[in-house]
Amino acid sequence: MSIPTGDNLFSPATTAADDLYSFRDNYFPLNPEERVSKLQNQSDLALQILDTIPIEKRKLPLQRATYEYLRGKILDIVPVYKKEAEDHLSKAVKLNPSLVDAWLCLGNCIWKKGDLNAAKNCFTFALSKGPNKNILCQLSMLERKLAQDAENPEEIVDESIKHAREAITLDVKDGYSWYNLGNGFLTSFFVTGAWDHSKLLQSLKAYQNAERDEKMKSNPDLYYNCATVNKYLENYERALTGFEAAALMDPGLNAMEDARMMVLLLEKLEYLLRGQIKAKRLSSLSSSLATVDLSHSYKRATMDLLSEGLNKGIAIAGKVLFFAKNESLAPLYYVLSDSNHTSYVITVYGIQNDAIKEGDQVTLLEPFYRFVDFSWEGKHYQFKSVRVDFVEQVLVNGKCLSPHHAARTSIYAQLKA
């Protein structure tokens, strides 16, 4: 930041404060309490540097404002709300309302207190002083938080995405701004019911742009959120690699638990596909597939005839052998068999869990097919998978699903920042 006093009086303390925040963003010990303790120690050292400035050198309003701002910023380094930090930052903006970074810090401090609307007012006022990528990113992040308890979450998340885009226009190479945009699209995917994969692809592209910025390569949240996107895109190997990388950077993220749950799901699917399906049961189920009336625009096919990706104008039918229960709210996983006794998995998004049951005959229109084939920790996973996004893509026992089977409620998965 520029020092409003016109000299280098506050340079050492400004550098100490900046170094303190850089340390916070890159220090993730195994024990979270150790992190808080270390931050507090580093904060105390930074305050000592600030207090070397003689009192007579910080009496003028602009000097006093800078001093109060730096003191509040340094005190606010810990994760919990500190009234002392808010008091100093409030004094700073009163003495110098143009001190934009003080408004940013004050908004963050008040956010910790839980007063989200007051925090938003701080960010909005700061933006009235001129465009600022850091303010825009924080406002975007705050709006995603506000959306969780709002009646119109989609609109608020759209605003979050708009502000994230504005930040990027100010500095197209800034990795944090791209990361923030990725978070906006990922949140949008969840609040709209976790079915629109185009939002996942937009999120993934933003995260990939973020990774080009060298300073973001030490950000564990980026790896965690990117792994989450890959999880929902069913890029299982990339997701597992990302969760593992995030866990190595920050053990407190609980990313290894996410990886463990994914491996458990994959093992369950493998077990149902191979170990549990007896030939006799498979034969009796698949041979009972009834002929379903379809529009002339669809051609019937079996799994072995599908191409990787979207199969336009194709319809496949299968009997539901198993519902694979898992911890995630979305997607739902089922194991099916077609008339050739080929077993496969369907992952169902945007549809309620009571729409499809074991023993049902399911017809999938324009299936999106993927052949999953990878190894992880010595175990090889290989199976055919079809993704279902809309109720309109599915016929159950020859009948269309009713609109009330569509799941469009907000889903809040674990998302960092």
Automatic annotation (TrEMBL):
PROSITE patterns: TPR. Residues 297-409 form the Tetratricopeptide repeat protein 5 OB fold domain. Pfam families: TTC5_OB. SMART domains: TPR (SM00028). The keyword Ribosomal protein does not apply. TPR repeats lie at residues 100-133. Keywords: TPR repeat. InterPro entries: TPR-like_helical_dom_sf, TPR_rpt, TTC5_OB, TTC5_OB_sf. This is Tetratricopeptide repeat protein 5 OB fold domain-containing protein.
